[in-house]
Design goal:
The chain has about 425 residues and is an alpha/beta fold. It has two domains: about 325 residues, Rossmann fold (3-Layer(aba) Sandwich), CATH 3.40.50; about 90 residues, GMP Synthetase, Chain A, domain 3 (2-Layer Sandwich). The chain has eleven helices and 20 strands. A twelve-stranded mixed β-sheet has the order 4-3-5-6-7-8-9-14-13-12-10-11, sandwiched between helices. Helix 2 crosses helix 3, helix 7 packs across helix 8 and helix 8 packs across helix 9. It is globular. Bound molecules: zinc ion. Zinc ion binds next to loops. The site of zinc ion (ZN) has 6 residues, from loops.
Length: about 425
């Protein structure tokens, strides 16, 4: 099976350099095959197509694809696995991938072993594009222990692609010890985990921790945090955009002009109010997983918002770029006039102020924003007023702003940190 994974990886690495026209043709072939499979074998999709009055053969071009209704996580959460699993696939032979469901109930996605190996190979392709080598020793630090069990391969015992895992669980000292002793040259984690570690490193130093590369994923990485991680570890940081349901969607190459989208594995669309946006416009990211046959996901709403880049990357790869990832749609706040305000804008405001350790903004109503602050001991005495003043400067007097100093800002159920949450997200 490891051989199959290695062949898959070679194939994926070749795809990176295909021309956009060849990638589009390749993607369309895969898409047609998937639609036929889902219609014939998955009761949810058969019903979805029938209700919309369409059959797979009605979709004659990529443009026709938009007539298939978008599926949301909430629509799938209430269905029994039997409605989503394709005929001929035994649930006992599949791995259940539990998505974290930060907004409520989790969703279970079922994958065959071959599909999981492909997911693994897709991540590895992204890591290798950033500079990962077979001889590297990589550690992934998770915020919480409930991640899916990673695959192990026989060649890892030969010292190739060595991978270790650690869980932070509030114990930065233990994780730093693991990092020092393990001599890892690649560190992979979330921005909030890096922030927790950096606080400790600042006080204690980092003898023995010298990664060559640092990988970040699972949460939005803003530029100041990226720079801080790079300064702390003296290594370049590469950001990755993944979805628990299907795996790695986009990755940064050394040119770091945005995320290269894995369009040989996924059909990716940007829509607003259900319609495709113009090239380069902000849209909700809709994903079709071209490899998922056990439990197909077609026109699945990622709940993330971003913009595609119209130009190709100077690195020469044919995979297009996602220039801005703005976060989950419910991470995006609204200005009183209805314009969206991405969480990175909030970072810019907070970074200018001294004495803030961590913050979280919750837009409770269209005209009410509550900002929770975890303050440093040496914060200025008027910090709450400073925050209110700067927030109002952006959100105007029409926004009711409440600033609260708190002792702790809890993580989401998923173990991830979200600096902004809107209970009234803008319509994107
Ligand atoms: Zn590139």
């Amino acid at each position: 099976m490891a051989l199959r994974a290695a062949i898959e990886l070679c194939r994926l690495k070749r795809n990176e350099w295909l021309k956009p026209r060849d990638l589009a043709r390749f993607q369309w072939q895969k898409l047609k095959r998937l639609l036929k499979h889902a219609y014939e074998n998955v009761s949810y999709y058969r019903r979805l197509f029938q209700t919309a009055g369409i059959r797979p053969e009605d979709i004659k071009s990529r443009e026709d694809f938009v007539i298939i209704p978008i599926t949301t996580k909430a629509q799938l959460q209430d269905l029994p696995p039997g409605a989503l699993l394709a005929k001929g696939y035994d649930i006992k032979n599949c791995t259940r991938v539990e998505t974290s469901g930060s907004t409520g109930k989790p969703l279970s996605v079922f994958q065959t072993k071959g599909e999981r190996q492909l997911v693994d190979a897709i991540w590895t392709r992204g890591f290798m594009a950033a500079g990962l080598r077979w001889s590297d020793k990589k550690i992934t630090i998770w915020a919480s222990p409930h991640e899916a069990k990673p695959l192990r391969y026989w060649f890892q015992s030969l010292g190739l692609m060595r991978r270790d895992y650690a869980t932070l669980l509030g114990s930065e000292t233990d994780v730093l010890e693991v990092l020092k002793k393990g001599r890892f040259n690649i560190i992979s984690s979330f921005p909030s985990v890096f922030k927790a570690l950096m606080g400790r490193i600042k006080r204690e130093g980092t003898p023995g921790i010298h990664p060559r590369l640092v990988f970040s994923s699972a949460e939005l990485l803003d530029e100041p945090t990226r720079r801080q991680i790079e300064e702390t570890f003296q290594a370049p940081v590469f950001d990755f955009y993944g979805m628990e349901e299907v795996g790695l969607i986009g990755w940064e190459c050394p040119a770091r002009q945005g995320f290269h989208l894995n369009i040989d594995i996924f059909a990716i669309e940007f829509v607003t109010n259900g319609r495709p946006v113009a090239a380069g416009e902000r849209g909700r990211i809709i994903v079709t997983s071209l490899y998922s046959y056990a439990m197909p996901l077609i026109r699945y709403d990622s709940e993330d918002v971003g913009r595609a880049r119209t130009k190709l990357c100077p690195c020469g790869r044919g995979l297009p770029l996602l220039s801005n990832l703005e976060g989950r749609f419910d991470d995006i706040l609204s200005l009183p006039d209805g314009r969206p305000f991405p969480p990175t804008g909030l970072t810019t405001i907070m970074r200018r102020l001294k004495g803030i350790k961590q913050y979280k903004a919750v837009q409770e109503k269209t005209n009410k924003l509550v900002v929770y602050l975890l303050l440093k001991e040496d914060h200025p005495s008027d910090i709450l007023q400073q925050v209110e003043r700067d927030i109002r400067e952006v959100f105007s007097e029409a926004m009711e702003v409440e600033i609260k100093a708190v002792k702790e800002i809890p993580l989401e159920g998923s173990g991830k940190f979200r600096p902004a949450i809107s209970l009234v997200p803008p319509r994107i």
